[in-house]
What we know:
Blueprint: H1 20-26, E1 58-62, H2 63-68, H3 74-79, E2 114-118, E3 121-122, E4 147-154, H4 158-161, E5 168-174, E6 180-190, E7 197-208, E8 211-222, E9 225-226, E10 242-249, E11 254-255, H5 268-271, E12 274-278, E13 281-286, H6 289-292, E14 295-297, E15 299-314, E16 317-332, E17 338-340, E18 349-351, E19 356-363, H7 366-369, E20 377-393, E21 400-419, H8 423-428, E22 433-434, E23 440-442, H9 446-450, H10 455-461, E24 462-487, E25 490-508, E26 527-545, E27 548-561, E28 564-580, E29 583-594, H11 598-602, E30 606-609, H12 616-622, E31 639-642, E32 651-665, E33 668-680, E34 683-684, H13 688-699, H14 707-715, E35 716-718, E36 730-735, E37 738-739, E38 742-757, E39 763-779, E40 787-788, E41 800-810, E42 813-822, E43 825-826, E44 833-834, E45 837-847, E46 852-859, E47 887-896
Parallel strand pairs: 2-5, 18-23, 31-36
Antiparallel strand pairs: 1-4, 2-3, 4-5, 6-7, 6-47, 7-8, 8-15, 9-14, 10-11, 10-13, 10-19, 12-13, 15-16, 16-20, 17-19, 18-19, 20-21, 21-24, 22-23, 24-25, 25-26, 26-27, 27-28, 28-29, 29-32, 30-31, 32-33, 33-38, 34-37, 35-36, 38-39, 39-40, 39-41, 41-42, 42-45, 43-44, 45-46, 46-47
Helix pairs in contact: 12-13, 13-14
Amino acid sequence: MKTKFELKPLAAGAIALLCGAAGSALAQEAAAVTAAPPAVVVTGSRIPRASLEGPSAVTVITGEDITKQGYKNVFDALSNLTQNSGFTQGADFGNTFTPSANTISLRGLGPNHTLVLLNGRRLADFPIAYEGTVNFTNLANIPSSVIERVEILSGGASAVYGSDAIAGVVNIILKKKTTGLDVNVKAGGTSRGGGSDQRLQLTGGDSFGKLNTLFSAEFLERDPLWSRDREFMSSKVGVAPSSVLGRKNVSTGKYVDPGDACAGLADLFEGSTVKYTAKAGSYCASPKVGPTYWTTQTKNSSQNLFGSANYELSPTTTLFAEALFGQNRSANNTRGPSWTSASTANGYFWNQNSKAYEAWSRYISPEEIGGASRYNRSWDDQASSLSVGVKGTIPGSSWQYEAAYSASLYKSESHTPRALANIDSFFLGPKLGLDADGVAIYAPDPARLLKRLTPSEFNGITGESVSNDKSWTNTLGVSANGEAFNLPAGPVKLATLAELGKQGFSNSPDPRINQGYFNTVVPSDVTAGTRKRYALGVEASVPLVEKLDATVAARYDRYSFAGRSDGKLTYNAGLEWRPAAQLLLRANHATSFRAPDMNYIFKARGTGYYSSSTDYYRCAKAGQPLDTCDYANVSPGADYVQTGSRDLRSEKGRSSGLGAVWSPSANFDVSLDYWNIKIDDLVTNLSADKLLRDEAECRIGGDLTSPTCVDTIARIIRNPLTALNKPGEIKEIHVNPINAASTSVSGIDVSAKYVLRTQAYGVWITKANYSKTLSAKSRQFAGDALNNDLDDLNNSDRRDKLNASLTWNRGDWSNTLFLQRYGKVPNSAGTAFLSPTTLVNASVVYNLNQRTTLSVAVNNLFNKVKPDTSGGWPYYPVGNYSPTGRQGWVELNYHFGS
């Protein structure tokens, strides 16, 4: 398949700060200025303006904030935004489809509803769909050394940027100019052990007459954090230990006693393997099986390069180019090597020696294969983007224009260890045929099951599948802005744009999976697709009367895919009223849309398994509470089957907001904004956990004729109750995308800043940002009751979030204390809410001289780890909190040049 480079429509889309003076004028600790600030393009509009404040609230994170507030990178800063309330599975979540990627979820609407831009241009999607379902942008490959600022607009912005901007827009703005060379070295670790990291950054640039250049190189190394590195989750407690070796008579459901065999394996899994006796009999087991093979932080090695150049062709024309390349290698472990007899069939065989149907199983330990990391999964990713264009002033006018071509490509190669097709014969000997029911016949030697493996034997039954995935996008865009005509209250400013683009993706699994090379019969098909798009847009800034301005925008986007087209017209309108110089009142309303995710459209039959599953129906039927239920948090979880749908409609969004900004002086400002976002025809795959919960409710006293119950029960495929093996257990869960009825969220954002300037004690700067979701409601099908998601214990999104900081600048010292309060979230069992938690970061920056800066940062100063034992191992709220504990870094920056 021919690969086309692309990038995103930029046109005037991004916020290209026109000069560093604008950045300092907007910096929160800057002193008041008397000269009018230069016009800048602010995210959410293509019309340059003199003020960051507009009809929609825009949050700014500067490169300096990333350092002082203890953020490790751009993603870390964005994930801690108060507006980022949604639960996401990132690189450190564990068993996820995207362990080498990180994303955010503004307003809890999912990662695919936040548009991420780099200098106003789109980036290629991560080639693997988030949770196997939706497309998203990876935030892990942006070098923080060249970050000028990050602007975040919450709310619909499709009338300016097109599809995806339903929950908001994140615009990452890179530096345009620098001189000399900065060398930055950073290293740190954790006080509890494991998870250390190191970073080297080189950033420089120079001017050569009319040519300005900038480059940056970033090299990062991060060690993994294993479950065994944290005592509280290094072993499973309060539940039956995991089987290491088992032999079961399938007809009776009883284990065959292993005798003294477990004693010979006692040193496995760090000396924790013992003979365990349960109601069904005895087997060899260890409480450390799962924790031993589980990383809670991925191993990562990445190299990121960025370069840009601007050439002043004439006083009115500038040529520009910029390129970004990132290479990332990640490795994690979420499941060790295990074997179950005849796993590609029904899981059991006819033992000709014992004259019984038996199921044998073996979990292979790190001591047998040369260490747990021998079974790591790994990913080699490459992300690149290129933008070239020309910008300047249209001759004979004051209008500014830009014409640009942008391209972005993302490639990912995954390496997954898999059992080979010969593994059954390794443990059971030669296959002797099939019985009348098609069950395999073996005459195995029990000693083979009991014998420990050597690394060479393990290598003989284990291989590695290699999958190749890629996505790309390219855009050709032209835009212009300027004054159109004058009204009594001032000039009317216009911006126009035209865009043409194409994007595509492909997921190519290892062809040997379908050729019988590995111990699997599950087919794995190639998934691929492309789509074209074009757009036309216009925006106007209209001074209605003195102190009252309006902004209106409209855009038409048309997508062509899967043999059909889908066009959407979106608009937004905003008002800004300044009844006094210090007070701004604002309001906005916008429509937005999202074209169906390409993965949802083109997905071939996909299969896999969930990291863990809870069979709520069997727990309820057995009368067992979730925290001790035999069917809760079973790992690995249920298998699933997923397919795409080419008939999906585009999602339709509406958002509105009301707000006020009060700035009585250069040292104090406060803002309050109310926001409301609604999505109709939401495209979604139901989560397996929700399906299983709904199934239990439906089967036990529910209305089996309701739309949800009918749909849910059809998706959960179970073995018959009369099955010889695993009667009544979940066989597979069928998921496919649908246009759900609707979802809506509303809330408030509050921000404040106060600067105290003293003669003797320096400058004190306090900042606070708070976001609270007031309502969150959804309806899956039109006939369903409206669900209150805030009270829903299946909804892991945060209800509120607070960030506050205190910075003290005096002389060559800058000291910052940063506080983060996380609101309540449901516990792992979904039975109650966990209490809010506050974490504190601290940093000290010291200027040794004009060239050298030394800083020390400590995250989670008080070494807190949020406990949660309700759902069992790993005993902390995965995804919402980290088990890392206190982390510390030392950073040194040296400047070469003037």
